[in-house]
Structures are given as structure tokens and as C-alpha cells.
Amino acid sequence: MQTRAYDNKPSTAKRMIIMLLAVLLLIGAIAGFQWFSISRMMANMPPPPAPTVTTTKVVYEAWQPAQSSVGTLRAVRGADLAFDVAGVVSKVNLVSGDEVKQGQVLVQLRDDDDVAALRQAEAAAALAKVTYDRAKRQLEVKAISQADHDNAAADLKARQATVQQHLALVAKKQLRAPFDGRAGIVTLSPGTYVNAGMSIVTVQQLDPVFVDFAVPQRDLGKLRKGQRVTLRLDAYGDRVFEGVLSAIDPKVDGDTRNARIEASVDNADGALVPGMFANVSVEVGEQDRQLTLPQSAITFNPYGETVFVVKPPAQANGADGQPAKPVAQQVFVTTGATRGDQIAVLSGLDEGTEVVTSGQLKLKNGTLLTIDNSKPPKNDAAPDVQEQ
Q1: Are 93 and 106 in contact (CB under 8 A)?
Q2: What pTM was estimated for this model as a whole?
Q3: In the CATH scheme, what architecture does the domain 111-172 have?
Q4: Which of 79, 214, 331, 353, by CA, is between 20 and 30 Å from 170?
């Protein structure tokens, strides 16, 4: 029996397996070579430069607890003045920005007809007074009846009432200052016709001024009438205005759960103007000492607040002979109240510990540090309004 030649050839499946193994070996060899090359390249690469950070030392500072808010300035007394009647302006007795006194006539309407009617009523009243005095004397000697005397007395009262009526009409043609204060901008000129109720000029009493602000209901227990209040405004840079808490609203707003607070602030030079916004700080509680840090030093996480402290290197010099760099170490802390750019540290740090204040996103435990404090972050307990 003859054996066929194709019976001694390997099967197709075997050939495929052999080819697959050869390809895998080739790929493995190439991958191994690449890994070896990359490893050598990485081993020869210089280490990444140490990230640059700013640092500060934890120190104790005098800490005055304060309740901060944003308020609006309001005049102690202010009014937009208008006439009760319409008429033509005959005289303007002030210029914009004048200081005015209570009762001063600011604007006069044409009142010739009213003055004439007043003079007529005064003359009639004077005649009625003469008639009444004569009737009174005649009644004493029984020269006239009681009815004639009573008629003369009633006529006198009617004439006097008419005089008061005309006096009121004349007074309505005069716009007077209701209190001492500063007048606003005046745009009227003699000859201008004005309608009743049309705003003519504003008068504001500016010393002192009130500042209105709101605080959450949870903080109401810290506030008392007479507490010291300080104001800062972006218009005046570092200048601080002082006042006292003058009133606390007896109810809390049902929508916001905030209470309205009023403070009185001295304004002898008139620098504060109603309507301005101000940063308000009310001193609450007793002053104490707290460990403080810039708020930028704290990393707030769901699992707690952390900071990176600066640890000295294990060796004085590195492998290149240069001074060794310090390293970062993450530490958990407990924080307290804030004021301006600062935050109080209640636990986790000791006084004098050096802490990273910026650049924390590039750090982890053991990271080498390059410290550059030429431009430190803000650390002001009472920054200007524009800085916040």
C-alpha cells in the first residue's frame, strides 16, 4: 500500500499556531526592547524641578470676633421736597449743594393774587375786631342786645379764620427746608411752571448717617445696641469710619430669615453719602488670641481641612552637592472664624510652623519645594472693599 505525499505535511491548524507563536515572540521582543530603551531614557532624565511655593509661619495674633456684612448708607433725615400747589417760580434762593437751615425759603412761587387776598382778609378782620370791641362796650352798658354782641363776635372769628386760610395759601407758595441739611442739585429757574407734587429739590441731613445691613437670625444673639461698628468703602481706600449699633429690628424677615440692623456713624466732614455701599463690621464678644493663617493656605475637602507644612530635608546637601530642598507634608487642621483674608486655626498646628500658602495643587507628601516669598498672598485682617 502506498502512502500519499500530502499525508506527511503538517496540517493547516498546526501551521497557523506556529505562525501565531512566532508573531507573539516577535511582538514580545519588540516590546521588551522598547521598554528597555524607555527605562534607560527615563533613568537618564533629570528629575522634575521642585515646584515653587510661597510659605508663612503660623503666629498668634490678637483676634477681635466680628460680624461682617454689606450695608447701605441712609441719611438720618432726608426728603424730596415738592409744592402742594401748582404755580410759576418767581425766585430760587439756593444753589446746588448749599447747606440750608430749618425754615429757610428755598423756592418761591408767584403769589401776588394770594398776598392781595390776604391783605383784604386782614383788613376785614381788623374792622370786625373794632366792631366787636364796640359791641362789647355797648353790651356792658346795656346799649345793645346780647344777640347783637354775639353776631359781632361770630363775624370776628369768621374774619380771622379767613385770614388764616389766606396765610396757608401764601405759605403753600413757599418751599421751606424742613430741617437743617444739604440741598441736592437744583435745575429750576425763575419763570418755570411746576405742578403740584413735582419733586423740586432733595434735602439730606448727613451728620450723622445711618447704615442699614442685615444679619442671619443665627447671629442675632451676638448683637447688642451700643456695640462698636466700623465701615470701609471703596471710595476712601484705607480710611475707617466708626460708629455704634443703634437699633435692631424687632422682627426677622420671613423670606430671608435675616434681621435688619441699623448703625449710626459720625460724618462731620460729609464724606459719607446716602445710597453708598459699605463693608460693615460689628465687634462681638471679647478679644482673644488665635493662631492665624491666610485663607489661601487651607485646602477644604469633604473629609476635612488640610495644609501642607514645610519639613526640613533629611540631608544637608543633595546628590549634586547643592543644599537639599525642604519637603512638603500634608496635615489635617481644624479651622475657626475668618476675618478679611485670615482664618483662625484651632488645632493641628503649633506656633512657628512653616506652612505653604500657595501652590498646593502641585504638591503631595514628600514633594521637594522651592520657596519664593517675593509675592506672598494677601494676609490682611481688614482688606479694602475692592480687595475682597
Answers
A1: yes
A2: 0.55
A3: Orthogonal Bundle (1.10)
A4: 79
